[in-house]
Design brief:
The chain has two domains: 1-32; 35-239, Beta-carbonic Anhydrase, Chain A. It has eleven helices and six strands. The chain has helices at residues 2-15, 17-20, 22-31, 49-53, 83-94, 109-116, 128-132, 136-145, 151-170, 174-181, 232-239, and strands at 37-42, 60-65, 99-105, 186-193, 198-203, 208-211. Helix 4 (49-53) links the parallel strand 1 and strand 2 (60-65). The protein binds zinc ion.
Length: 245
Amino acid sequence: MALERLLKGFADFRVGYYRDHLDLFDKLATEGQSPKILIVGCADARVDPGILTQTKPGDIFTVRNIGAIVPPAQIPPDHRQHGTSAAIEYAVRGLEVEHVVILGHALCGGIAALVDGDKGAFADYDYLSTWTAVAQSVRDHALSELKDMPRAQLTRVVEQASVVNSVVNLMGFPWIAERVAVGKMVLHAWWFNLVEGQLYAFNPETAEFDPVLGLKVRPTIDKSTAFAAVRPERLIAKFAGKPAF
Ligand SMILES: [Zn+2]
């Protein structure tokens, strides 16, 4: 049934969307792709970046993984299989995207697994906790600062703090930091709340996520941002009721 639904969908696509966009597909086939935006999203089936942004084929380059996480740059490269970093590298160095968006989301199972740690349902999985441990320090810091916070709320804080952490990790790739410094690239920390259908963006001034309203959004990091202000610890401090620092 599930597979039939896919095939029915593809049949509909062939006679509908594909036929309606023949010129676009022809152009993409002959000229190649030239997206201006890379989105790093979560593999979660509920948060498809293309659907959320109503974009067309060729508009966004996308990498999706557990938790919408960017690992730290490996310098020097160790020649191991860094799938997410390879996708980021191709988008930045190959396609010269102008924006990188980290798109975290509410009710993220990957981040919930990180929060639960050894007590979680996925503690004995082979790969999952090793991957989400990219944000381990963020999780540990949130847990120690927000001891009395209910799990659901704490998970939400870690979801957002992990997005900020991933933007910080982006700046560790030299070819990203160089492009940001000269104004060729802008980085965005976004979080989508699927419960209310609202998108939020990190505001480096207040260290909070603000709702995105209309067509303008404040960049998380561009060439004029004080990069030091973009730290997950500042966001966690806000939730702990401490003044922004
Ligand atoms: Zn998720």
